[in-house]
What we know:
Elements: H1 2-23, H2 27-46, H3 51-69, H4 75-98, H5 104-135, H6 141-165
Helix pairs in contact: 1-2, 1-3, 1-4, 3-4, 4-5, 5-6
Amino acid sequence: MTLFALLFSILFGAGSLAFGYQLAGFTQFAQWIILLGLFWLISIWQRWRWFSYIGLVFNLIVAALGLWLFLNFPPGWMFAGAIGGLLAFDLTTFWNKVRFINSKEEKRVLETRHLLRVSALAVIGMTLGSLAMLIKRQFTLEWGILGAAILVWGLIQFFIWFRNRD
């Protein structure tokens, strides 16, 4: 469960940043962002724990550049890229800790709680990104679809948590 969320967050972060830079006309830089995302995925497979630090710093710097230096960038995609990088970093460290727990029940409970927390933070971050998109009048169909998917994912996580709580 954590591994799937980790891989998804890497794809989500790199894909959002690349899409935002692509929309702004920086096609070549968007390709480099995708390449770094692929390296991050390979690093998970190779168990290069140190690479998550590089991925996090890269995602945050690229998102900050898109937000502050280039004023016509869609802010939501930069927020989404930063959120994806932060989630991927957090889930990498969490996954490395949880791998050594022998009890399957304890591991499941820890994973469920942790994923619920980061899901709630992702939904809050995406809401802030949506507000930024609305303020800059750059809310698009693609952003609406992404927002709806994130909302559905957050609701599913909430209902799973609520069901397991009883």
